[in-house]
Design a protein that fits this description.
By secondary structure, this protein is mainly alpha-helical. Helices cover 67% and strands 2% of the residues. It starts with a helix and ends with a helix.
């Protein structure tokens, strides 16, 4: 065997000697190749080796099981070592290109890996977010039935099982933003999207103020799958800022300094910064997706609920989605559907 196998594989790949690359990969014992690729995945040539191993096995019908074992070893290694975000992304993205070549049983194991990684909740190991949408899609398109942990079901049934499990799972705060953003790439029914958005909205109350803007950026995008869902995060955010900020401001204005329950460790500056960033995201995400008539239609059912509608955050959110916010120099207040709705 060549003394430096990794260098030999990379050299053959770079020289585009696909037949020789295929032959050397077929000859190397499975365990040796698994150890070689997984142990080097975080090194300087780790991605290059990974790429050419996958490429060489594409041309071989004899290495399907070997390729799968290497893949699972690499994925497990990603959960053990801390890599730069771009490095981990490149490794997973390269695998995604080859996913259609994996059999359904192998795809099931890869998806189970994703689910268990989400359950573990390690913010340093989030390759699953770029992997799960494609694996889930491929399995849901499978013709016939597949075996999942001893149970036989269709791909569509398995997809539902996985989503149900994810929607019921406790998601650690450290991965919640990535978890939410992942679903931008997953086709969801209205019912599924509602469950997801409700789950994430419920978690908002447990977050620090400066954790919320990045989460809401992803959440607003998910909501636009069915735009009426935007009401849910706006309602949750209204409750959050009322509890942590506006309630205290109102109490101070009334000269009441005895409400110790309203004293929070978060500074007013952080709360204002978080709110401003959230409103900025809301404006940008909806700018080319919702017009003012749609915004008004979304909030019209709450017209007789001033305790919700006429609150500082909700008013600010409505204005953020209005033309007068985006083009203040050219838009007249009287021609704004949103402003007309607010003053009724």
């Amino acid at each position: 065997m060549v003394p430096n196998i990794a260098a030999a594989v990379i050299k053959l790949g770079q020289q585009k000697k696909n037949d020789e690359l295929k032959e050397i990969l077929e000859r190397i014992p499975t365990k040796e190749l698994v150890d070689l690729v997984s142990s080097n995945i975080g090194g300087a040539d780790g991605f290059t080796l990974w790429h050419f191993v996958l490429l060489g096995m594409t041309h071989s019908s004899k290495t399907s099981d070997k390729r799968f074992q290497i893949t699972m070893a690499v994925l497990q290694q990603l959960n053990r070592v801390e890599l730069a975000t771009k490095v981990a992304f490149d490794i997973v993205s390269r695998l995604v290109l080859d996913l259609p070549k994996f059999g359904p049983d192998q795809l099931v194991e890869i998806l189970e890996y994703c689910v268990e990684s989400i359950r573990a909740g390690d913010p340093k190991s989030m390759g699953w977010k770029d992997l799960l949408p494609d694996v889930l899609s491929l399995l849901s398109q499978q013709v016939g039935r597949i075996s999942v942990n001893g149970f036989i079901m269709t791909g569509v049934e398995y997809r539902k099982k996985v989503l149900d499990e994810l929607f019921k799972m406790k998601i650690q705060n450290g991965i919640l933003t990535s978890f939410t953003g992942m679903f931008r790439e997953v086709q969801l029914s209205r019912e599924e999207a509602t469950l997801l958005v409700g789950k994430v909205c419920d978690a908002i109350r447990h977050l620090e103020a400066l954790e919320i803007p990045a989460l809401t950026f992803q959440l607003f995008h998910v909501c636009l799958k069915y735009s009426s869902l935007l009401v849910l995060p706006i309602y949750s955010l209204q409750k959050y800022f009322h509890k942590h900020y506006y309630k205290r401001i109102a109490s101070n204005d009334c000269g009441d300094s005895t409400d110790f329950d309203s004293i929070e460790p978060v500074s007013d500056k952080e709360l204002r910064e978080a709110e401003e960033t959230i409103l900025y995201h809301l404006s940008n995400v909806t700018e080319f997706r919702l017009d003012e008539a749609q915004v008004v239609a979304m909030f019209k059912p709450f017209q007789n609920m001033p305790e919700f509608l006429l609150t500082p955050f909700v008013i600010s959110a409505l204005i953020a989605m209005s033309k007068i916010n985006r083009t203040p120099d050219t838009m007249k207040v009287v021609s704004s559907h949103v402003m007309a709705f607010l003053v009724r």
